[in-house]
Amino acid sequence: MPIIEVKHLTKEYDLGTITSLKDSLRHTLAKIQGKDTWQRERFKALDDVNFTIEEGEVVGIIGHNGAGKSTLLKHLANITKPTSGEVIVRGSIAPLIEVGAGVNPELTGRENIFLNGAILGIPKKVIASKLDEIIDFSELEQFIDTPVKRYSSGMAVKLGFSIATSIKADILIVDEVLAVGDLAFQKKCYDRMEHMIYKENTTVLIVGHNIRQLERMCERMILLERGGIKHDGIPSEVCNEFYIDTKNKIDSQTPREKLGNMIPEDSTGDIQVLSMEFFTAHDPSPTANIKMHEQFSIKIKFISHIDLDSVDINIGIHTTDFVYITKTASSMLSSALSFKAGEHTIQFSVENLAIAPSTYGIGMTITDPRQDKCLWYAKNIKNFEITAGQVSASRLPVHPALVYLPFTWQIPTLDIDELATQHLKRKEG
User: Fold this and answer.
1) d(CA 209, CA 143)
2) In CATH, what number does 257-387 get?
């Protein structure tokens, strides 16, 4: 039986406000008399949402701002009530919905620990036994008897996360609050969450904008759009769809390509990039679909309006959230590159593209190192897709990596008779 069931969940809000006390009183009186004629626009934050979550699942919830992510979590945590539909939760919940959520600012940190434990139905004796662990993890020993209203936002998050993850609950709900803490504390939080996921089999729901981090931690992802579920499935597939949607929105606002000319983010005007194309060894035609561990080439055409002497061309492959996986630069060559004014074609090739299946972009910089001057620069110039190729997607590691180097395995031949003899010897011993 699922630990969480969401059935036809819909949440509507009224848009518009009453501008004065007089209008408010008039509206209230008309409502009592059944004569309310004020027409208010209704907004659906959630629109007929349906899904189930099994015990022990780790589910990421992503989407653009306003998609309904936080509203959904508040319904799961029973913080707000639906307009229609229902949410069934079979177990205790530790919600970490927003900075300071579940923390009373008038109480001290110590008092809040006991208060939150009581709300979760944890006996006071059990809370007391975990008190030192919670305080130690929060790093707030010096301030634990200070009212929380005097804490910084980061300190409140530390306390809230420590309470939510130290007092055992069946379901942990986290809504992008970890970005508030410092880097060292964020690492502690992720380590604690991974322990809960892999060792304690806790059901975890996470909302965040660090998509790569969620893809690594979650076994399932839900993409929300305009209050509904657009995609519910494998994290890599859902994340790629989200990235493509994001890129399309960006391109519709600031197109990267226009009339065949690649538009730079920074340029002196001396160089004009005309085109960028991708090729593989098995296909002479340009393609945007590349197989993992396949030969991969990038061909770039550009016009230089001046003679270029000893320029440095730096090109890299980055994720859709602009984490560079690999780069190469002409400065690594034995001799510098120089070009006469005119049109030129350059090509970059790699024999074995060992990057994980996903959507990627290209960034390129052309500089004049002698003058320390950037001649042309852009990232996300063009996108391409890497697929698993000969390696079945189901055979890739459960927890994805960004790079899969082409390791060679040496496995000795197993002698069945020898194994049987060793087994008998161990048994007799």
Assistant:
1) 31
2) 2.70.50.60
How far apart CA 303 and CA 346 sit, in angstroms, is 11
Amino acid at 400: P
Structure tokens at 347: 């090509």
For the segment 118-157, what is each residue's pLDDT rounded down to a tens digit?
876 778 888 898 899 889 988 899 999 999 889 887 788 7
Q: Among 301-305, 349-353, 358-362, 411-415, where is mean pLDDT lowest?
A: 411-415
Confidence category of residue 260, pLDDT binned at 50, 70, 90: very low
Residues 6+ apart with CB under 8 A from 405: 354
Q: Name residue 48's beta-bridge partners.
A: none
| pLDDT (average), residues 93-119 | 78
Q: Residue 135 is encoded by which pair of tokens?
A: 């305080």
User: Which strands make up the sheet holding 58-62, listed edge to edge?
Assistant: 93-96, 171-175, 203-207, 58-62, 220-225, 228-233
Alpha helices in 218-359 (DSSP H): 235-253
Q: What is the CB neighbour count within 10 angstroms for residue 283?
A: 12
Alpha-carbon gap, residue 223 to 240, rounded angstroms: 11
Instruction: Give the C-alpha distances (Å, rounded to integers) separating 228 from 10, 12, 81, 222, 346.
Output: 9, 13, 17, 10, 46
CATH architecture of 56-246: 3-Layer(aba) Sandwich (3.40)
Give the number of other CB atoms < 10 A from CB of residue 182. Answer: 11
Q: Quick check: 274 and 382 in contact, CB under 8 A?
A: no
Averaged pLDDT, 371-391? 86
Q: Give the three-state DSSP class for 94.
A: strand
Please state, in angstroms and rounded to a whole number, the distance separating the CA atoms of residues 6 and 85. Answer: 8
**Roughly how many angstroms between the first and final C-alpha of the chain, as a whole number?**
46
Query: What is the per-residue pLDDT for 70?
Result: 85
The C-alpha atoms of residue 410 and residue 428 are separated, in whole angstroms, by 32
* Eight-state DSSP code of residue 413: P
Residue type, 18: I
Q: Kindly state the average pLDDT of the residues 17-42.
A: 65
* Exposed e or buried b per residue across 28-58, where buried means at least 16 C-beta atoms within 10 angstroms of its C-beta: eeeeeeeeeeeeeeeeebbbebebebeeebb
The arithmetic mean of pLDDT across residues 31-48, rounded, is: 72
Higher-confidence residue of 31 and 347: namely 347
Task: Specify the domain boundaries for CATH 3.40.50.300 within the chain.
Answer: 56-246
